[in-house]
Design brief:
Layout (H helix, E strand, L loop, with lengths): L1 H5 L16 E4 L14 E4 L1 H5 L4 H14 L5 H8 L4 H19 L1
Helix pairs in contact: 4-5
The structure holds zinc ion.
Length: 105
């Protein structure tokens, strides 16, 4: 499915990949709740896979998807978190995520 979507090209740099070339990259890692569906997987050449976003970037993405998307704007999130800097809102959001993950154990 992902291979069809990509036209058998790397979805980052566009290089042509043979039928057995290419690597599947999880956009949100499995350990952070990412699935194996096509919406979470990307077909990459080995070079692009080696420089794909690291775990920290992926955690950022997860926080954004899970917690920021419930707000329609940064201002709204800022009101909720009582912070007026992006970093402050972000840190509080990350702490809330960590707290929820801890309580789930
Ligand atoms: Zn590539």
């Amino acid at each position: 499915m992902v291979r069809n979507r990509s036209g058998s090209r790397c979805e980052r740099c566009g290089v042509d990949l043979g039928p057995r070339e290419g690597e599947y990259h999880h956009i949100v890692p499995v350990v952070f709740g990412g699935g194996n569906g096509a919406d979470n997987c990307s077909l990459l050449c080995s070079h692009c896979h080696s420089v794909a976003p690291n775990a920290k970037d992926e955690l950022d993405l997860l926080i954004y998807r899970r917690y920021f998307l419930r707000f329609s704007s940064f201002k709204e999130a800022a009101r909720y978190y009582g912070e007026d800097t992006k970093l402050g809102v972000y840190v509080k959001c990350a702490l809330e995520l960590a707290e929820r993950e801890k309580n789930r154990e």
